[in-house]
Structure formats: structure tokens, C-alpha cells
Specification:
Chain A is an alpha/beta fold. Helices cover 47% and strands 9% of the residues of chain A. Chain B has a six-stranded parallel β-sheet with strand order 3-4-2-1-5-6. Chain B has a domain at 29-162 and 202-263: Undecaprenyl pyrophosphate synthetase, CATH 3.40.1180.10. Chain B is an alpha/beta fold. Chain B starts with a helix and ends with a helix. Classes of the chains: A alpha/beta, B alpha/beta. Chains A and B meet through helix 3, helix 4, helix 5, helix 9 and helix 10 of A and helix 2, helix 8, helix 9, helix 10 and strand 6 of B.
Amino acid sequence: MSKEDLTSNEKIKLDPTVSPNKILINKHQEDSKEKIPLDSSSTPFEPIPAYHSGPVLASISNFFRLFVSPVTTTGDGSKNGFYGASNEARSGLARVSEGNNSGWSQIAVFYFYHTILTICFIFMSIYRLFEYLWNRSKLRFLNLAYSTSKTPSVIHGDINKLPKIPQRLSAILNFLPEQEEGGGIEGLCNSCSDLAAWSLSAGIPYLNIYEYHGVLKQSIPELRRAIHRKLVVYFGTNNVPTFKITVPHLNLSFYGAFDDEYDEDITTFDINISLLSNIDGRPTIVELTKVMSDLSKSGDLTEKDVTTDFIDRELEQLVGVEPDLIIVFQPFLNLQSYPPWHLRLSEMYWEPDNTDVTYAVFLRALQKFSTCKVNVGR
Amino acid sequence: MADWISTFPLTQHILGFTKTQLCRVIHSGPVPEHIGFIMDGNRRFAKQHKIQLEEGHNAGFESMAKLLEVCYDCGVKSVSVFAFSIENFNRSNREIDWLMSLFKKKFKQVLEHGDLCETYGVKIRVVGNVKLLPKDVRQVLDEAEEMTKNNTRAILNVCAPYTSRDDMTHAIRNIVKEGIDSKDITEDTIGKHLYSGPVPKMELLIRTSNVYRLSDFMLWEVVDLDCDIEILDVLWPEFTPLRLIWILLKWGFNRTYYGHRTANLLNLNNGSDDDSHSTSSSTTSQSQLKKTT
């Protein structure tokens, strides 16, 4: 079924001379025709899900290794001077081998401070344990306190109290190994469909889902079905909201749970979901630069044309519009190569030590957003 | 209370001593190579303390000088501070004028005394669309850059007037202008063409006054997998060196305890993998190290 989709998309050939982004999208489509299996039957891409091998033991061994030989810890030994002071120890070693006495004192001083640091870290690990327990119990309490009961009216009631809600919401999700809770492609699709249902109930028309590896882009049939099922649970079988999934990188769109579900004349959808991944970030900007440099060589573009507005327009076509709020569903704040151009004024939200996609986090993010005041430059 | 204690003799010395010792302790472990600061909250500070707006900016500068000292003491190689955004030109004329004269005054001070620059060997660089600045300010900034250009131990990037989108546009424009062959354009090429040029990878971004936004600062750098973002609930002038020491300690702890945690979370197994298992690789790297030393 999706193969037909591809061919139907090819029919609408874009005129490549119009603008750089169109050239790029055409190129991407050409490239990915063979690579991306859009059929559910073909084996999906797996970013090697692996068991986390005993993080506690690993951390203890990290400590030990940091203590014994600071240079090799965290695999950064090859990177010069990551541990600034370990250079001191190294130069000390060098001097010792030259038969210089001051080398020994250098090593002694370094290890003196280093021992204190290690002791600090041991105390901090105890502190961290309590912090973790506190954060987790807080999250558990919140999850109990805020429940959707799978009815849109509850969500609507929660959101209605807020003075403002974002128009465009972005969520950073993680592909977890299949053995973990909420892991695997199914888990990811489930989180996605949860988010779609919550956003719909909250009245957010645009939802971006960012997943680093782009697993979602390669399991679109599953995703369509998962969203449809979830919407049926929330809204009933009689009035399932219309949704549209887009992959901006390939300029593909999918409407509803299966092809030809909606009449052709429908142009607005209740929710627009767009799937982003690592490729939409820096690599897209690099590709755009390449196309621009080629265009300038053929004389179609001069350097004066390259302005912030121009690039903004092109990237809007290629990736989408900047979101108002980004919810990061991971234990710490890191943007995982999210498209850098699209982060300018977006509000970020994350819960420390949270690993799950839950309604409590979603609601708290919206609550935080509603209190924020954006004043550009003033 | 704190004020009263500080009236005792020797307190300043003891505080200073503890600070340098703590910094040396941190220096012996992992330290971020490049830190970015978004200095937010000077005006709110002025409002809260019922002082003039200008005094608020002044307090912010004082706080910055103290924090930079801690950074360089701890062995941070490069620091970027967001001093002035291109969007800030929308502020009232009076405030802009005052900020410009503050720049001029402080940079002149640095030129005359050069204490921070000389003790730490700091190379000052002005990062951003300098053409937008008034001529006299530009001249002073140029002088400061010129005077410190031979220092190599650490870098201070003063981002004024800067926005990241302008930065990226500038980089792309320059690449187009230079006519680099499209096959040779990579992420590194763009990274090198940014205003900040070849600086170490940013590994920590600190923003004050509890705002969860990047406000167009170093977006290209911040999205990196190794860059952690720290958001504090204090206003910039209230940001004490002790707080920064705690953040650096926490950063080092996280790096030691979790390794490159984002890469681990994403199952990216490039190099960072061997800190969780495979003792054999660590022994080989140790033996390699022995060979090199």
C-alpha cells in the first residue's frame, strides 16, 4: 500500500529550478527510495538495542579508573587534554623519566587533589542517590495525581485553566531497547499516539516528534495504525479526528490510518504530526549549503541573496516551523542534535530523572509554558 | 549575617584560599572545555533591588569577572558570554548608549590593567556582527583583540552583537562566497566558518534567572550530544562563584558516573561505549598510553 504512496508522490514532480529546498527534497527522495522500507513486512531498522550492562558496576569501575589513571576514564584518553590536569601528571611522568626530581612532586600534588576529588565524588554519589529517589517518588506521585482516564474532556478541563497554550509542540522521544518498558518500535508508536491524543484534546494543531535515529520514519504503517487505535479509544469510533503524518525530509504525507480513508477534498486536519530525526538537524543545513554553493557556481544565486530570511524560508520548507514548546522526555536536558535553526525561542521542558512519556509531564510542561513571557531582545 | 562575618579579619583571604583550592580539586578531574553563559537578569536585579538599570548592568559585569576567574582556575579552555544580542537593539536608546559606554569602559580597563588577561593568558575575541556596533566601541574592541591575540592558554568569546541565526547565515554566506566545492562541505566546514571559529566543542551552557529558552545563543553548538544545559533560578548578578564550582563539580561527577550519557542513551557506540563494559579495551588504551609516555 505504501508503495503506491511513493509512486503517487512521484507524480507530483517538483520543478527543480525553483528553489534550493526543492532540489534538496527531490534528491532526498531519489536517495531514499531503495533505502527506506515503507512496507511493514520488511524488517525495520534497529539501532542495536542492547541491555544496559550493570550501570552501577560500570560507574564504580569508572570511579576506580578515574582514580587510578585519570586519562583513560570515559573513553576520552585519546582526546588530548580532556582532563586538563592529567596533563600535569603526564608531564610529571615525563620529567621523572628524564631523571628530574620536580616531576615526582608534580605527580604527588596532582594525586593529592585528585584524591580529594574522588572523595567528593563518592559523597556526591550518595547525594545523587537520594536526589534520584526524591525525583522518582515525586514523579510517581504526579503520575497518580494527574491521570487522563482516556477521556478528552478531562484533558480539556486541565488545559482550559491555562492562559495560553503552544500552537506548535515538539517532543523529543527516545528509542529504547525492546526489553525495557515502553521500548521497541511498539513502545515508541504508543508514546507517539499518546502525545497525539493529548495534543488533540488540548487543542494543539501541530505536533513534531523528534527521534534521533529516525526509527519512526521507517515504521509509518505501524504508527498510523497505533494513532488510529488510540484516537478511537479517546474519541470513540463515530468521530475519529482526522490526522496527517508528514515526513518533511522526504516531503511525504500520509493521511489517516490507511490510504484513501478521507475524501480527497479535505485540506485541513485536526492534527498535523511531523516526524523529525537527526538528519533534519545539522545535516540538512549542510546539504542546503551544498546546494547553495552549487547554485552560486552556476550563477543562479549570489552571496547577497543568502540572508537570514532566505535561509529561514528554505528551512521552513525543509524541516518545518519553529515549535513554541519542546518537551524532552529524558532524565536530563540535552537536545540530541535537534534542528538548531528551529530552537531560537522555543521553551524547553524536562523532568529530572524522568524516563517515560506520561501525561503528568505533558501537563506540567504546558503549565510551565503558560507562565512564560517571551520578549525578544527587550 | 554574611555581611557581618565578612567584617572579621582574614575572612577574604580564607575565602579566596578555599576558592583556589576547590578550583584545583576540580581541575584534577574532568572539566568542560567550553562553557557558554547567557547573562540574564541584570535588569530584573536592578528592579528588585530598586537601583538604576545601569547599576544592574554594572553588577552583572562584576559577577562575570568573578565567574570567569573561577572558570579559568578550573582549567576551562574557552568561555563564551552572551553580552549583547542583535535583538537588543530594540531596547531604548538610552540603555543601548549606556551599555555601549560600559563596553568601552570595561574593555579600556582590561587594556590598561590586563590583570585577567595576563594572569590567565586569556585571548579575547569579539564574536558576532561587529559591523552593527558604533565605530568608537569597535575600535576599543579591536584594540583589546589585538593586544591579547598572542595569548594561548584560554579564550574568552564576547558575543556582541550576536544571534545564532545571524551566525549560521554568515557562515553559509562565506562558504558560498569562497566557492568551496560542494563535496568538501561538512558540518566541520560550517563549524569553522562560524564567528567563533575553531574553538573546543561546547560542553556546558549555563543560563540564569530560570528561563528555559536558548534565546538564539550558539544554537549550532548547543545541540551537540555532549553539551549539557544548566538552568539556574538566580539572577545573573546573584550568581556566585561557589554556585559555579558546584555546577562544575556536578558536571564532572556526571561525566565520570555516567560517561557520555546522551550517546549511551541513544545507543551510539563510538568510543564512549567502553566505559560501561569491556575491560580489555581499557587495558589496551592504558598500554598505549604507556607507550606514548
